[in-house]
Amino acid sequence: MTEIANHDQSALWNGRSGAAWVDNRAVLDQMFVPLARFLIDRARDVAQRAPVGRLLDVGCGTGGATLALSQALGAHWSLTGADISAPMIAEARTRAAHARRPVEYVCADVQTHAFTGEPFDLIVSRLGVMFFDDPVAAFVNLRRASRPGAWLHMLAWRGAAENPFMTVAERAAQPLLPDLARRVPGAPGQFGFADRERVEDILTSSGWTDVSLAPVQFDCTFALADLREYATRLGPVGLALAQRTPAERARIVDTLVEAYAPFIQNDEVRFTAACWHLSARAPALPA
């Protein structure tokens, strides 16, 4: 583990939240298949112009998107996944070994980590860059780890109002969990990159060029059978429920699951993920 600047996020993702993501890795990977496909398409575009290269997946979690990218790009690209969560990196390494994919995983705080080896030709992220205490410093570090002219393609959540599914549990639980942590606009977290102008300023201030933020949205699904676990293990509600007695949890969980009714169709949970597509280039060498 390298030097850590994001102490709160490290504690979060190396604790209950990291364990919950490991336990629910299959559900989350299924849920975010459309986002992974989007990044694969962007990566293939880059690979057409640079048949050999290195890719970094920031906030790779349990490695699902990294493995999909490795499969799509083939043997001529080397891939590295980085995440601050030791439990998720351990799971990612196990998955890569089982899949026999030559992906390197690094447990690191990307804001401070000194990446070694050849610079990266492409940096991607599936919802993993909204958590830095100092996002400008993080993107400066990523630029320094990149080859001149390298591409950046990342997905980040837009605002909570555009993603009602993501706050169903919080809204339903608020009357029952008065100590539930409130989200702070712009703070590190799921919707930390909701403000378009702020994110554009972060990227330009950190030295990236050709900066663009484009709104994109994805139709996501997962099995209804997995809803109860999803609603009660992940996010702020999952952390708050862990402090309650079994009887209290059971009562609250029933209320939470009922609140998801508008998103249930037959045996599936369906929702729209409203995201930003962040794209940029590392500065090219002077002519």
UniProtKB/TrEMBL annotation:
<dbReference type="Pfam" id="PF13649">
    <property type="entry name" value="Methyltransf_25"/>
</dbReference>
<protein>
    <submittedName>
        <fullName>SAM-dependent methyltransferase</fullName>
    </submittedName>
</protein>
<dbReference type="InterPro" id="IPR041698">
    <property type="entry name" value="Methyltransf_25"/>
</dbReference>
<dbReference type="GO" id="GO:0008168">
    <property type="term" value="F:methyltransferase activity"/>
</dbReference>
<feature type="domain" description="Methyltransferase">
    <location>
        <begin position="56"/>
        <end position="149"/>
    </location>
</feature>
<dbReference type="InterPro" id="IPR029063">
    <property type="entry name" value="SAM-dependent_MTases_sf"/>
</dbReference>
<keyword id="KW-0489">Methyltransferase</keyword>
<keyword id="KW-0808">Transferase</keyword>
<keyword id="KW-0949">S-adenosyl-L-methionine</keyword>
<dbReference type="GO" id="GO:0032259">
    <property type="term" value="P:methylation"/>
</dbReference>
